[in-house]
Design a protein that fits this description.
- By secondary structure, the chain is mainly alpha-helical.
- The longest helix is centred in the C-terminal third of the chain and has 18 residues.
- It is rod-shaped and about 75 Å long.
- It starts with a helix and ends in a 5-residue tail after the last helix.
């Protein structure tokens, strides 16, 4: 993340003063941003991997096939 984005998010979204920003560590900034994002309803859980997606898709397709009525 470029410094300009970090500074603007700290001063804007977090409403930190420039002095607060420059005294904070990157860890403090990151923790504050995560807290802010969660408070705004952002889901910070990682997206599923391609393998997880394919497994879930295959399971869903199998369930759909089992729902169908057998040919008479």
């Amino acid at each position: 993340m470029p410094w300009e984005d970090i500074i603007s998010s700290a001063l804007g979204a977090l409403k930190w003063s420039p002095n607060t920003f420059w005294q904070a560590t990157i860890y403090e900034y990151t923790a504050a941003m995560k807290g802010h994002l969660v408070s705004q309803g952002v889901d910070l859980n990682p997206a599923v991997s391609r393998d997880e997606y394919l497994t879930l898709k295959a399971e869903d397709e199998a369930r759909e096939r089992n729902k169908r009525l057998p040919d008479a």
